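Quick board copy: two proteins, each given as sequence then tokens.
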Amino acid sequence: MNEDFTNWQEWLVPRIEVEAEAVLRELKRTALEKLSYEHAARRAFEANLFKRWGRALNLLEVAMYVALEAGQMYNEEHRPTAAKENDCQFEVLTRLHARACALASEIYTLLLGGHATGAMARWRALHEVTVVALFIRRHGNATAERYLLHEIVESKRGKDDYEACYVRLGYDPLDMQLTEELESEYRALLHRFGREFGSQYGWAAEVSGVARPTFGGIEQAVGLDHMRAHYRMSSHGIHANPKGIMWNIGLLKGDRVLLAGPSNAGLADPGDCTLISLYQCTVALLTLRPTEDALVSLKVLDRIAKEGGEAFHAIHHEQLSEEGLQEND
């Protein structure tokens, strides 16, 4: 190594440490004042956002309430019978619906804060839950059982990942007995259902007629492949691809800023998609053991979802009009 460079490092490193310590002390001293200003600015921003998007966001919140209440009542009414009958389909669909409600709540919170990209990314998860729910609803109890048992496959994959990195992380090894039990359960499932059961969507292999099913294939099987463009768009907020850094749903057409925080734009697609997916997932659950009350809830939710979607897109077009922009500009 060059001697001058070594001497330069020896001189600079201690100086950086001293200056960083001084900056940190000053930051801690003034942090409350700075954060108070930031919090006030955030509250003002969120109030302005809600002033524009409030009527659509309110409808989304109402839809979330209807879906959650309907799911809770349905679960309380039918769980005793479903438990006696070992109804795996009921178990899977109630759990997927609960997760869908939680995801909708996350999306709503992100929308309130102006994080359209994050909301769209969480919708991707909601869409996946909805697709799986509709597939399980269509293919019955045997497929639902395979889906539940596939947790062992996921646990096996997690175990393998952990064993590959726990030493570097400084963690303890897994309990040997638990590891052996997991491996034994995994081998037993492959023996029962075939080696294809060990793939990511192996629980769907038999009814799909495909050795290694994909999410895209499952999506197509339930007729939701028309959401593929939205699904790909949502992926830009998750993956480190070049599209994700060059395009942002939270920017209006023509904006050239680097968006590093919330935005008052771009809420229409994640809001509308969330309403649609939440309704579809609720349909998958409530039609399993349909009652008059359940069907009434679905009709109400359907109307709210449509009205909410229209409101989101109307507000989006109002915003474009104010800026003198067209949808395809």
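And the next:
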Amino acid sequence: MSAVPNTERIAEYIASAQERALPDDVLNAARLCLADWVSVALGALEEPAAKIVHATAQEWKSAGRSTMLEGGTACATVAALCNGTLAHCLDFDDTYVKGITHTSAPVWAAVCALGEERGATEAEMLRAFVTGFEVSACAGNGLGEAVTARGWHGTGIFGRLGAAAASAALLGLDRETARHALGLAATQTSGLTASFGTMSKPFHAGKAAMDGILAAQLAAKGFRAAGNLLDPGAGLDNAVVQDGSVRFAPADFSQWEILQNSFKPYAACHLTHPAVDAARAARALAPDVARAEGYIAEVGDLAKQVTGEKSGAPEFSLEGKFDLKYCVALALHGYPLSNADFQEGQKPDPAVLETASRIAVEARPDLTFMSARLTARMPGGKALTTEIPIAKGHPGNPIAWPDMWQKFRGLTEERLGAQCEPLFRKLKTFGRSEPASLLRSLAG
């Protein structure tokens, strides 16, 4: 690679978005992201956080052609705020593990809203989304764990950059203008892990989508920002990792990072999933495992820090999405960890809470974001250990279209009825129609 600064290299990548050929596997991955995004968004239409954001947005009386899935139309920024929040309400959306970022929630929200406003074709929207995903991954790769460990939500940082990049691609910004759009997105960085388990977490995704569009629109009108904030040590990485231990890596677009995306089979924090898989495996071997005398859940450092320090006794089930002990206990009792298991205001099963009280969580250096071990002390002193090297949904153990159909149907069939399967087929071939009007038919 040449010595071109990061921000300039990324801006060059954005400026060439609409001329870039996308391989079939990349197009397939982008469509999987879209199908996942639609499923989790439609599945969240009754969520209080989504309804409050939508009601507030309606009070703004924004005029525009972009569809809000909760109902009505607005300008692109407002629609992106509503739909981006909606898509992260269930915490069931995809994760780019290297950046610990829920990328599709803000990036597809921005692309759909701005694409609809501009009458973009589906092919243009796909190229914009892939561009946004790759830029978000480029920025987050290597920084994500350090950022999360310091209390920042990667979706609010890298998702915002991805939304700005995708919006800049849809607007056809040149390299210099795209550089300012990136600077505008970077300076709006926000989102705290301390907000996890509250309505603020999905709001991070919606605000990232909104701010990404705004950054690109302002830059297109001549707004100027710092043009080097994504260079190593030049601004954003200094701010979010202040001890200087980790910096932006040199921008590299030689591989498609979207092929390393992960999808969630469970409606809980992705950091809990390996341990949940281990608990499900244990239950398959010993149906009475929920009656074990005690358990040790061994996980990676970040899973322990973010989810393993919780009490295992959430007051309401929704809080349990970010509590590893509670999620493991659900799995040990045979719960599928679907959206129905984490409803707002729902009280936890006392039997699950009792099991969770017997779970200890330990961090192990040989385990990663994707792996876990669970040891149950069965009656009579026998130990039952299950190990998950790669949790379901991650590269190496991926979710494919049949798996996605099961998730999609479970989240949308009640609402869509007979239209559920035709819509899913449409998402599998997205990119072959023009102009795109996907969301209009789905709005409440």
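Board note added afterward: The chain has 17 helices and six strands.
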